[in-house]
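Our platform keeps sequence and structure together, in a single record for each protein. Such a record has a labelled line for the sequence and another for the backbone structure tokens. This encoding replaces a full spatial description with a residue-level series of whole-number codes. Below, we set out a record of this kind in full and without editing:
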Amino acid sequence: LPSHGGLSSTSHLDGDGATAPMETRPQPDAPVCSPPSHPPVVEDDLQFLLCEGCRQESPNLKLLTCLHTLCLGCLSENKPVGQCPVCCTAILQANGIPDMDNLLFTNLQARLRVYKQITSHGGPTCSRCRGEAALVWCCECEEFFCAKCFEDHQWWHKKKNHKVRKLEELRAESAHQFLEDTRKSYNLFCTSSSHPDQSRVCSIYCQRCEKALCCSCALLDNQHAPFCDIRSETQRRQEELSSMERELRRRRSGFEAAYVSLQGEAARLEEAQREMRELIRQRVEQLVRLIRQEEEELLGLVEARQEQGRRELARELRHVEGVLRRMEAGERLVEKMNLYATEQEVMDMQPFIKGSLQELQQLQLPVAVDRGQPGDLSECRARLQAL
């Protein structure tokens, strides 16, 4: 690190962000931190991290089968219980609280809080000594260090390649860049009962039992086959989601056209009803008080004829609108998975998201029905002719 950052020049970062455990000493006359280059605000393109109900940050975000994300508070207050408040899709769990956590959004919120600390006025303090102003941030340990604690960190992890970034460099980045640059690959640990301490890192994926294994388990148990690299499997899952998302985009245009058609149909239905009401009023006004009762009967007849059509249209509109919202949520979630998801998050969330996308792909477009004529009004016209 350069001397103006609070550490002597004998400590350095290599091009990949790795550090060398060299002798360091604090410079007493050096400034502890530089002022933030911009206010610590959440960028507009990161609003997707908020709950889609209350639009607030929450540590308890749940992912519904319709691929909308809501916090526990909104789900607990949801009325009626058992359906998504955004698109009205049914929630499978009886208590109205889905089992699937949105790990991607929760982890991104945690990293965004780190970014807010970095860009806050005065900057963060050292995570170890709690007294000195922090000069660097270790992406692996996820901790801030002052000059002295950074020296101890380098000595303790001298055989590990920890990525350390200077705070002044991180302040110059946007929140979006910070989330992208700090994405790291978390190790998957083998869950076999023979080594429950989770000391063995998984690098192999068994396609038969569909789980990650360490090398020892893969070699000793001949029931596991065929194998592939765990990174290849996460890449395959990401590509599978991307392919489904492209197909979803293609199908979405059909649902959008159907939605516009239904809206136009509803407008024509309302216009036809309005015209008939106006015709009834004009004829009845000519007969003044003697046929007021007939006027009310005719109006009631028209309303009765239209009620069923309105209910059907409203139901179809709500269904198509809900499907469109689910598709938007699916596209948005897959896009953010591609940008920000770690391997652990892909392994945990991909099967769930895949199932929801497959359900969307199986949905059929609503059958087009011509409702241009608002019911059978022949009886109404005959009674008008009689008057």
Remarks:
- The beta strands are 61-63, 69-71, 136-138, 143-145, 164-166, 204-206, 211-213, 227-229.
- The longest strand covers residues 61-63.
- Residues 73 and 172 are 35 Å apart (CA to CA).
- The first helix runs from residue 72 to 76.
